[in-house]
C-alpha cells in the first residue's frame, strides 16, 4: 500500500510504503477447547486471547486518549490538580480473559477504573506558577532563580506547546530546553535586518506585543528558536512521564479513593456509555457478544486466627474481630530484646526540631517500649548534625554517644530527617548497613510535633523490637498446624525493576525465608540480575542454598517442605518463570540434600490486577462497603484447570479494597484448597511492622522491602559473566561483610 500524510503544522507532507504480510493462522478452536477444560494453556492460546483483546479495545483506543491499557474520555468534571500543577484524570480499562468453572466455554470481560497523570492543557504560565509553588502568575513577574529554572526545565522538557500570538496560525513545537537568560537579555541575530536584538524587543517590533513577563527565560525549540512562555499554550492529552513526588502521590490517593458502590456505579456507566459493546462493529464482525450485567460469584469468609502475645500478660490471646486489626494498647509483645545503648541523631535545624521537643518525644517512645515489655536503658543522647555535612562522620559520632553501657555494643540509632522524600534517608541506610553495622530507625521531623502521639510510638516500637531481633506476636499452635507438623520453610521472592529515570540501574532480586517453625523470623538474600527487567531470578539456586544452610544452622535440621510465594509475575510469564525457577530450586535441593529433598509448593501472588468484589448484602460488608478480611473467591472466576483463588486478607482504610490473586502452579505437598487458603490468610497476620493483617503474605512484603533497600546502595553493580553458582549472594553488595549482613537480613 502507498499511504500519504498531509502536512500538519511544522510536520511536512510524507508518503509511506506499507507492506502487510501474513504470518500465521490462529485457530480459535484451541482456545474454545481450553475454555471447556479439554486442553492445557499454550502460547497459541495466549495469542488468541491477545487477538481478542485487540478486537475488544480497538474502537475505544481510537476514540479516546490512551495511557497504557486505559482510555481517558473527556468529561465535564472539575479538573483535579495534584501538588506541582499536574492533572489527574480518571479513565477505564477492559480486558478479555479465559473464563469460569461454572460456565465452561466462555470468556469474561474485566472492566475497571484507572487513573493517569497528565500535563494540564491551557496556559503555560499557569502551569509554571504551580510547578514552582507560586501563589499566582503575578509572582513570576520578578523572575526566577537559577535553581527554579533548572527545576522548570526538567518538568517542561519534551512538552508539546502551541503559540497563540499569531492569530489562527498556531504552530506546534516541542520544548527542548530553557534559555539561561530572561527574555529581555536573550539575544539573537535578526537575519532580515542584520542586527542583534533581544527576544523582548523582537516581539515588540514584529508583533506589536510588549512582553509582560520579560524576566522569565524563553523556551528553546527546534534549532535555537526562542519563544517567550507567555505566548504559549499546552496541548491537551500529554501524559506526565516523570516520577511524581510524595505530596503528589498523597493527593493522587486521596482523589482516586472511591467507595466500592461508587466504583461499581462508574463501571456500569462506562459499559453503557463509553465501551458500548453491543454497538461496536468490530465485536459484531467477529460475532462476539458481551453480557453487560455484572457477574455474581460465590465467596466465603475464613475464620480469623487468634494472635498470641506475651504469655505472662493478662491479654495473652487477642482475637482480632475488629476487621482484621487489633489495638496495640496495653499489649506486651511476645518476646522482646533489651535496649541498652541507643542515641538520637537529628539531621534538621533546631528551629524546626527543638531539643526539648525531641526529648519529650523520646520519653514517649521509651515509655511505649517499656509498656511493650522491653528493657530500656538510659535516655538516649541527642546529637544535632548538619544535614549538608559528612553523614558518615555524623553517624559515627552518634554511634559513639550511644555507648553508655560499656558492657554492650551500640544497638540502635534514631535518625530524625527533615522531609520525605530525602536523599538523606538512602545515605543513612546505606552507611549504617554497609559501613557501620547498626540498626537505624528514621523518623520525619514533622512527626515530632505531637509528643503524645501514642499510636506513632506504638508503630515505631513494633519496628524497633523486630529490628533488634524480638518477636512481636505469633499465632497459637493450632492455627499453624499446616507448617508445624514437619519442618517447613516459607519463602517469599520479588524482583525490583528500575523506575522512571533509573534506566541505567539493574533489576534486583530479593528472597526472604522463614528459619523458625512459627514463621516469624526471616532471613533474606539479594542478587542482581545481569539482564535488566528479566522477570526470572537469575541466581535463585544460590540464594536458596544459602537460606537452606541458615535454616539448618538455626534448627539443626533441613526443611522437609518448602512453600514458595513469588511476587511480580504476569500471567504471560507464568510458564517461563515456573520452568526456570522450579528447576533452579530443584538443582539447589540436589546440592544441599543427600537424599529426600523437600516437597515444593510454588505459588504466584498477583496484586496488580483489576478484579474487585462487592458484597451483595450490606450486612456482609465493612463500614466502607468492602468485603470483610478473610473473604475468598475460588469457585467461579478462576479457570477449571488452574488451582488459584482471590483472597482479601486485609481491611482497607479508604476506597475499594483489592484482593490478592494467588496461583498455585506447582504443588508436591498436595495441599487442599482449604489448607493453602487458611495458611496464606493466617500468615498475613504475622507481619512484624504493624498491628493488622496485610494484603499479601509477609515473606513477599519483606522481600519487597529488602529489594527496595538494596536499591539505595550505590555500590551495586550488574554482575559480569561469572557463574552465580560460584559466587556468594551477599557479595552482590561489595561493601557488606557477612557480620554486617546480619543487621540487614534479620527481620
From TrEMBL:
SUPFAM superfamilies registered for this protein in UniProt: PAZ domain (SSF101690), Ribonuclease H-like (SSF53098)
Family: Belongs to the argonaute family.
Domain Piwi: 412-715
Protein's recorded name: Piwi domain-containing protein
A Pfam family this chain is assigned to: ArgoMid
Domain of life: Eukaryota
Originating organism: Rhizophagus irregularis (strain DAOM 181602 / DAOM 197198 / MUCL 43194) (Arbuscular mycorrhizal fungus)
Domain (PAZ) ranges: 123-236
UniProt xrefs under PROSITE patterns: PAZ, PIWI
Lineage: Eukaryota, Fungi, Fungi incertae sedis, Mucoromycota, Glomeromycotina
An example Gene Ontology molecular-function term: RNA binding
InterPro entries reported for this sequence: ArgoL1, ArgoL2, Argonaute_Mid_dom, PAZ_dom, PAZ_dom_sf, Piwi, Piwi_ago-like, RNaseH-like_sf
Entries under CDD domains matching the protein: PAZ_argonaute_like, Piwi_ago-like
